[in-house]
């Protein structure tokens, strides 16, 4: 089939890689310089008319959307109007990610366990609420801030400073609303699913590492590394999350007249009272995609076509683990340095995959051009072997002016050993 992937990062590189493995002719818009064997089209991911035109011209049979910016620009609505096959939520359904306040409203309606919260449109009421609640608590800028609009505050002063930041600076764009929520204590995990209307086909679990530095220190980032599946999460907890979060969400979106179709991402914390939601994303997670897709044995489009037809599908996963470590530019997330030359990729073993995100090709050189530069992954029968292989691969590379976490997966090891 002719398949189009929209986006340019590591997640889209992994999607395109999987679709190519499955034997398709893969187009990517705009793609990046490292998508070998795929056809890149330089169309911006939010230029929805041009994307639809491209899909028509090139007889694209399926379009898969990577980034939230395309969804919020209405790419799915436009493709559907033109009768083009696309897997992703409409603009109305993507608001689950686009607005935290909206997501909370839907969760309340669906009875989905989540942190208690209040939304405020002015700083004074938000500050009064913080006084009343006390720390710890979490302050979130409403709208898209790429995982960076969240402050986990352990003191009232930190929470107050975060609120002032949101309303008085334009650090997070024009924000008119802030969500203040209860701090949830427990193991964090990601659970994603293929969803169409009420039909939910869950994927295996994965765990991201959001903080910049080892030991979960430093600022929140878009994600510094991940692995899948989580060996220390029980089947019972997994099933509870599917039954109490994913399915009621899908049903409620249908009831509200804005059915969800696409990859649904639930960010969860396993509290003493069971799994609770901290966020929904209306798309595949990044870097979770890079560690989940190497584990997926079933052809991706077979699962997508089954869910869209409202059929059940027994997804085939490998009996093993993938770990992915993000190589970030020095200075990320605040002021990433660009222009570093990365090398040594030719000598990596076959089962190590490198997905590119913030890099460009200059002649034969791989040059840094963003914050998160690449994700190095390894797939092995055990998580420990995957970890050993991925860090061995990284040590073979020459990665000046970059940093990465050296403790990806450590929570799994401390809990099984
Ligand atoms: P978010 O962008 O909502 O995923 O938040 C970024 C990170 O902040 C999450 O990955 C969590 O580690 C943390 N976080 C967000 N909300 C909460 C909460 N209610 N309790 C504890 N940690 C949270
Ligand atoms: N890894 C979290 C996200 O994609 O937002």
UniProtKB/TrEMBL annotation:
Pfam family, one: GARS_C
One annotated GO biological process: purine nucleobase biosynthetic process
Spans through the membrane: none
Record-listed E.C. numbers: 6.3.4.13
Domain of life of the organism encoding this protein: Bacteria
Catalytic function, reaction form: 5-phospho-beta-D-ribosylamine + glycine + ATP = N(1)-(5-phospho-beta-D-ribosyl)glycinamide + ADP + phosphate + H(+)
Cofactor(s) essential for the protein: Mn(2+); Mg(2+)
Segments forming domain ATP-grasp: 104-312
PROSITE patterns xref list: ATP_GRASP, GARS
GO molecular function, one term: ATP binding
Family classification: Belongs to the GARS family.
HAMAP family membership: GARS (MF_00138)
Name under which the protein is recorded: Phosphoribosylamine--glycine ligase
Organism: Exiguobacterium sp. (strain ATCC BAA-1283 / AT1b)
